[in-house]
Amino acid sequence: MHGQYVFTVRVRLEPAQPAISLEPGSETTTVTVRRVAPEPGTGGWRFFRDTLWRGEVADEAHVRRLAEDWLDLPVESASFSELQVDTVYFDAMKSAIASDLDAFNAETVSEALSKYLGSSIRVQDV
Description:
Pfam families: LWR_salt (PF26423). This is LWR-salt protein. InterPro entries: LWR_salt. By secondary structure, the protein is an alpha+beta fold. It has four helices and six strands, in the order ββαββαβααβ. A four-stranded mixed β-sheet has the order 2-1-5-6. It is elongated, with a radius of gyration of 17 Å.
């Protein structure tokens, strides 16, 4: 079972020593950040519900702070790209959502997935 959230994050590099400088215009770079998605039904597995809305970051400032914690770097922007899962993870996720639809304010699993992830789910078995 495998799932991971993928974000595009723009970080600012800052020299730790005053004798070091960066080339003007090169202080920021964009990186792809992958965050393990907790197993459905375990602590933190509802990250998508608490963080995303229709496949977009619901509170960009909050996600910037999360990314700063993840990377220990100043973050200028962060956007959600997709949730990558295998079939086993996806099936477990749908089952966990189905068992608690009220928590997602939805009548069906499809509605819950659309509401929070839009079309930003990629199911791939490797």
